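lol ok so funny story. i was supposed to be doing the assay writeup but got distracted and ended up predicting the structure for this chain instead. priorities right. anyway since i did it might as well share w the group, maybe its usefull for someone
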Amino acid sequence: VGNTPLICGGRLRLSSGGWQYQKSCYSLKEDGAWKLEASSDLNTARGYAATGSVIMNNKLVLAGGYNENYLTTIEVAAPNTKSETLPISLPVGMYGSCIVPWDTNTFVIMGGYSGSNRKQTHFVNMANNTVTDGPSLLKARSSFSCHSMSINGEEYIIAAGGWPGLKSTEYLPKANYGSGWQKSKNWTVVLMA
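and the output, tada:
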């Protein structure tokens, strides 16, 4: 966020063996130390918010997550700034989803877990506070990686891996997203001695 790495939320293992979900935000200082951004604490404690890194209006977007409940809320955070819960919510509570930016005001949230792995995707427009359905993933997946990239001048969104042990990759051409997600080659891990 504005050239400052920022991490918010998470899950802390307690000595009793239980878990505590966090509201804290930390920024990375130039000397490599993490600084607690107390003024930026989240409004809702959450772990497993959507992975990916979406910055909108110079604020980190945190969507969904879990804190003994599946969360529908979306928050934005920045260093030295009070976190804000947006007036829009996700259509269902979910965690383990992935987000990528779509345009200046919109991000895409995809997959996740809400009692079972999800295929659904949603476009969230923060300028007009709307959520619209996008094309469904080919595979239901959670806890996976996603990224937006340009190849030969064409923009794509990539979704790869995920729970439970998925090795598949799929992509969505942004210029023709109505055609839906396309299967890519599966990936494998090669161990070298």
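The chain is about 0% helix and 40% strand. The longest strand covers residues 81-89.
back to the writeup now i swear
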